[in-house]
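hey can u check if this looks right to u? its 124 residues, i copy pasted from the old doc so theres a chance i mangled smth
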Amino acid sequence: MGHYRTEQEIATVVEGFENCTTSKEEFTHLSHLTVATCYLCDSTPEESFRKMRLGLLRFLDHHGVNPAKYSDSVTLAWIENIRDVRQGMDDDLPLLEIVNTIIARLGHSRLKIEGSRELGKVND
């Protein structure tokens, strides 16, 4: 069984992030993956990156967290990792299965960032 049981649970995570109603303690790594996966299902990698960047900076500001905790390279690397896993999946899968698969594959992963990656390389 996956992490989420319904798409409403996923929507609640995204809404809590976007509205800053989720506490900073409740917004876990799995929450980050959930939001980024939803964005990638509805947008290009570049737009998903922009939405995550703006959302994370807004979220940090709302919760009084030093914005230095945010990193473009980390956000971009996670977007790329999610995109890579997503590309190996059937395009017709429901969001629930997509998000649960991403979490199963990346939920315990550590990030490897290549110093030469740039936003423009997202589509490569």
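The CA atoms of residues 2 and 100 lie 5 Å apart.
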